[in-house]
Amino acid sequence: MPIQHCIVHDIDKAGSDQPASLKPATAELTTTALLEELLSRFHDAYHAKTKAWGHFVTASDDQAEASAGLATILADYLDGKRDFTGFTREAAERLLPVVDAHLSVSGHLLCIDYRQGETHYFALALLHQREGFGVTDSLQVVPATQLNLARMSLGLRINLTQWRDGAASRHYLSWIHDRGGKKLSEDLAGVLGATEGIDATGETRALLKAFSDYVEQEDMPEEQSREKTEALIDYANEQAGRGEPITLEELSELLDEQQPKAFYDHIRNADYGLSPEIPPDKRTLRQFRRFTGRAGGMSISFDSHLLGSSIEYDENQDRLIIKQVPKQLKEQLKKRQG
């Protein structure tokens, strides 16, 4: 991931009752192997977070007028009207009210302009420090301070290629939206002049529902169902780890090389309302697994998230209780009883 520009500004926050202040850097950092490794570690930490996905507010959005916020100064930087140091300094100043309202500790504002393959990105994150231990060349234990990437609660990434190309994407911008940090996320979006363009959690759930319906409709054998489930989860997690969306057509081809359009056609014909590209929600993916079993002429398969709601397991009496019998099965049972 070649770094084009990188700088670190310091945001000082002495306590919850003290206003945040900015100590701006006067020059960019020189790109080194260590800085490249920091970018890689930041990538991993950022993509492990729950995020909101959206775009800059424009005049065509009904909810608000076009923003003159980050989009304007970012465009000026990309057009050569501002240098990277000046652009990031102004961005940092705009973030001070958000830090004041929601955070009580100081941090280092990491700003990076970089490329990943042919895609151009800008990322920004407030990184905090933690105290730890180190060992010197003389094997003495000494205190050591390091950046705590896992604690990152304020961060964003912009796909500059999608944004500048004028693509129809409504999710070229993402920002951290951790559980319990809803107001922080909303205030950050306000400073960015951004609005959510897609519900990643809802879309991921809808995709998994579509997949479950597809498996049931095709009446797949247990082994085939398990293989396709693992293929979907592996692909979705790989995309999440790269910070890239799930592409429905690509997923459909992956699930069935012989009929590469089968799953895609199922989604479109059933009208699940899914976007062609879906930012994967890792928390939702972690909850999705299929329980399967076959014995004595009986085959059972269901998604793990149904356990405790539509399906209950009574371990003491070794019973599986199905509360919502599938319509097709219900009709067969009624015919049998009649």
From TrEMBL:
InterPro entries cross-referenced by the UniProt entry: Nucleoid_associated_NdpA
One Gene Ontology term of the molecular function aspect: single-stranded RNA binding
Name the record gives this protein: Nucleoid-associated protein YejK
Entry's Gene Ontology cellular component terms: bacterial nucleoid
Principal location: cytoplasm
NCBIfam families reported in the protein's UniProt record: PRK00378.1 (NF001557)
Keyword Cytoplasm among record annotations: yes
Family of the protein in this entry: Belongs to the YejK family.
Pfam families xrefs: NA37 (PF04245)
Record field: transmembrane: none
Keywords: Cytoplasm
Locations listed in the record: Cytoplasm, Nucleoid
